[in-house]
Amino acid sequence: MVGRFFFSRDTTETMSTREFCSKVSDAFVGINPDLKPRIDEFKKRPDWMELSFEQQYEGLVAGPLRVLNRRAILTIDALDECEGRIELMKTLRDKQSSVPLLRTFITGRPEADIKQWVMKVDGVRMASVRELEGDNEDVEKYIRSRLEDEPSDVQNRVIRGADGLFIWARIACDLLGQALDINGRLEELEGPSEGASKLDSIYRVALKQATQDDEPSR
What we know:
Layout lengths: L1 E5 L5 H4 L4 H12 L4 H8 L9 H16 L3 E6 L7 H11 L6 E5 L5 H9 L8 H5 L3 H10 L5 H11 L3 H13 L3 H8 L8 H13 L8
Parallel strand pairs: 1-2, 2-3
Helix pairs in contact: 2-4, 3-4, 4-5, 8-9, 8-10, 9-10, 9-11, 10-11, 10-12
């Protein structure tokens, strides 16, 4: 059985945990209706929607799965897009051992609080896309195609800078295509500022390029 929830900042419903438990339980019920009676019993409580996230998770997800005693997978996409994710992460950590047949697969950018949470949870493994998929040859092909008129050393520097990250490669190619001084622009793109991530650095260059020198535009 697989239950899934995708976080997104597009809407209030998908950027918060408010509907997380009910959506996940609906997904599990769609695969195994045997879960429905216990979930319906929990929803008879008139105040169930006002309960804490941990209480809803126990009543709609963890409790029914524990009773069913079958293997299940919970996938959570884009955890970094979730507002108020601290309570969700705490609940997943606290409830992990109580539902031994449930495995949770989470994707998201490695934000500081997410990385810290992973380090505190036993039995959790964190891996980057590169570790899972190996070198991303598509990114290299994309860069060489976009910069086919540039010398190979320029292409190679961009490939090293992208480090398999497509969004970095796309923005870098856009910026280099507008640059009068290719080497100067490359030096701006290479080596993020101290404490900054790779994307922080390239977005800073992109914003500088997009704004005028006058103060109102900045």
